[in-house]
Amino acid sequence: MNATSAPRSPTESRLNSCAMTTGNAVPFQQILGVKFFDGSVDEVIDIMCRRGGLLVVPAAPALVNIQYDQGYRTALLEADLAIADSGFMVLLWRILRGENVARISGLSYLKRLLSKSRVPSEDLVFVVPTEVARDKAISCVLLSALPLGANNFYVAPRYTGQVEDAQLAAIVNAQRPAHIIIGLGGGVQEKLGMYLREHAKYRPAIHCIGAALGFLTGDQKPIPDWADRRYLGWLLRLGRNPQLYLRRFWVAHELPGLILKYRENVPPLVAKNRPTQ
Fold this sequence. Notes:
Layout lengths: L9 H8 L10 E4 L2 E4 L3 H11 L1 E4 L3 H4 L6 H9 L2 E2 L4 H11 L8 H10 L8 E5 L2 H9 L1 H4 L8 E3 L10 H10 L3 E4 L6 H11 L5 E4 L2 H7 L7 H5 L3 H8 L1 H9 L4 H8 L15
Parallel strand pairs: 3-4, 3-8, 5-6, 5-7, 7-8
Antiparallel strand pairs: 1-2
């Protein structure tokens, strides 16, 4: 070791253990002020493993709230990485701007992260919305190979107002997992991820992957790989529960106008109350 180099912590060493050697430059496309990673799923996982930090995966309906919700807006703009999970946004960017951005679904990202054999179970903490979601995750075939126990899961309370969780921060600092995977709703999980990044006494990789964990574990009806690759996951969800998802997806009708008007720039904050998605 170089005499001027500080020794790495065990967590830093474990983060590096699942990474391949990549360059320092991070390719991205900036959309509405958010820097979306413009590369492969393996590349973005390698970066998260090496550097840690906060990764966000904004869906189209939630992304609209960048102009309405200050906390969500801050989390997206200050995240270390964002991936373009929304096929709708990717298609809009291609049609309205004539530019391509790599689409990486939250589901494919999560599967690839968990399939890395060098991520031991003690390096994982999952934040889930309910005890049922936790039990389904524990029994999931892909996750059962790790194997996981109660210490790998945290059932989040229902957050109201400012999203803070001192109990979760204490657990994270005590266990020091290399990876924290948050599977809550959009608009909440990003704020929680930001809170954890600010209150962790080390630098874990915090992955805000939302419904992807539920798709994987069966807590939500799964999205087949063929539908995920063809940007049709939203259509399957709409067909399964039109009353719920028609309302949620309708919010995204504002996204074309936002992209057309603001392009790579962040929209101004508007004083208007909107529900998070």
